[in-house]
Design brief:
The chain has 322 residues and is α/β, with parallel strands linked by helices. It has one domain: Ribonucleoside hydrolase-like (Inosine-uridine Nucleoside N-ribohydrolase, Chain A, Alpha-Beta Complex), CATH 3.90.245. Helix content is 38%, strand content 18%. The protein has helices at 12-23, 41-54, 79-82, 106-116, 130-138, 167-171, 173-180, 192-197, 202-209, 213-220, 223-233, 241-250, 282-286, 305-314; strands at 2-8, 27-34, 62-64, 121-125, 146-152, 187-190, 200-201, 237-238, 255-260, 262-264, 275-277, 297-303. It has an 8-stranded mixed beta sheet, sandwiched between helices. α1 (12-23) packs parallel to α12 (241-250) and α5 (130-138) crosses α7. The longest helix has 14 residues, at 41-54. The protein starts with a strand and ends in an 8-residue tail after the last helix. Residues 75-87 have a biased composition (Basic and acidic residues). Pfam families: IU_nuc_hydro. This is Nucleoside hydrolase.
């Protein structure tokens, strides 16, 4: 049983990711915490509550976290892919909810759950890393309670929000550097390089829509998202970045990883938010001035793509008697 906290900024792909975790029988979803990102914090929090309502998981607590980055303002939202409501302009297909986020905020809720945990907990940050940076800074004594962080973010070869940067890391590079470079919690980074390779086509989406009530609603969230990614991919489909990370979080070993020293560019040049991986041999690294890194991060570099796509669908399919 994977004990899991998701930290997220829903987001169409976040919605699919949350649904997979919420419905997975081998996952104990302890909480969903929210952060600014694809849209503002009020909308990401409302979206998280309604996605859990769709999945019949109103038992899962939701707490709102950071509304802005640690240091510098976020330059822009990602409305081109996710629409003004974060869900491709179709958030109203989700059931309404009268539930409110829990008091105290995201960091306090994560800390409380870790304090209470009798087994290590996996945290899956699939938005900007602001909440996680704050958690690690404020509660360092709880780090042994974290099994690992499974982070969707970064791009080693080329970004989406700029030529070098991926959106989640670019939204708060200082927080990303705090988590990936300055700390020592075991981490898997799932970069855009791999998630693009795991993109799904319209046939996959038809199967999602036919899988049940939840799949049908999730598919109804995707029209603008699909339009955006059809232009990016060159064929009709979409990239489900965050869902790829969640599959690894709940099924460890799904993704093949490579241990790499990383750094995050925090300057205001054209590479702001870039993740820099040092792929030189260790002897070369040792013989030169090292990057200011705390060690290595397991970076996801490959997977069985057909199996991964099947796992994404399997995670959402409902039993006939549901």
């Amino acid at each position: 049983m994977t004990r899991l906290i998701i930290d997220t900024d829903p987001g169409v792909d976040d919605a699919i990711a949350i649904a997979i975790a919420a419905l997975h029988p081998g996952t104990d979803l302890l909480a969903v915490t929210t952060v600014f990102g694809n849209v503002g914090l009020e909308k990401t929090t409302r979206n998280a509550l309604r996605i859990l309502e769709l999945c019949g998981r109103s038992d899962v607590p939701v707490a709102a976290g950071a509304a802005m980055p640690l240091v510098h303002p976020q330059a822009r939202r990602d409305s081109s892919a996710h629409g003004d409501d974060g869900l491709s302009g179709h958030a109203d297909v989700l059931p309404p909810t009268s539930r409110e986020p829990v008091a105290g905020g995201a960091v306090a809720l994560m800390a409380s759950l870790l304090e209470q945990a009798d087994e290590p907990v996996t945290i899956a940050p699939i938005g900007p890393l602001t909440n996680i940076a704050a958690l690690l800074a404020a509660y360092p004594h709880l780090k042994p309670k974290i099994e690992r962080l499974v982070i969707m973010g970064g791009a080693l070869e080329g970004g989406n929000v700029s030529a070098r940067a991926e959106f989640n890391v670019w939204s708060d590079p200082e927080a990303a550097r705090r988590v990936l470079v300055a700390d020592d919690v075991p981490s898997v980074l799932v970069p855009m390089d791999l998630t693009y390779r795991c993109a799904v086509d319209t046939e996959w989406m038809e199967r999602l829509a036919a899988s049940g009530r939840v799949g049908e609603a999730l598919c109804a969230l995707t029209p603008e998202y699909v339009r955006h990614y059809t232009g990016a991919l060159g064929w009709p489909g979409m990239v489900v970045h965050d869902a790829v990370a969640i599959v690894e979080a709940i099924t460890p070993g799904t993704l093949v990883t490579e241990s790499l020293p990383l750094d995050v560019e925090c300057s205001f040049g054209p590479s702001r938010g870039a993740v820099i991986a040092d792929r030189r041999r260790q002897a070369q690294i040792d013989d030169t001035v090292p990057l200011d890194v705390r060690g290595r991060v397991n970076v996801a570099v490959d997977t069985d793509i057909d199996r991964l796509r099947a796992l994404l669908l399997h995670g959402i399919q409902e039993k006939m008697d549901a």
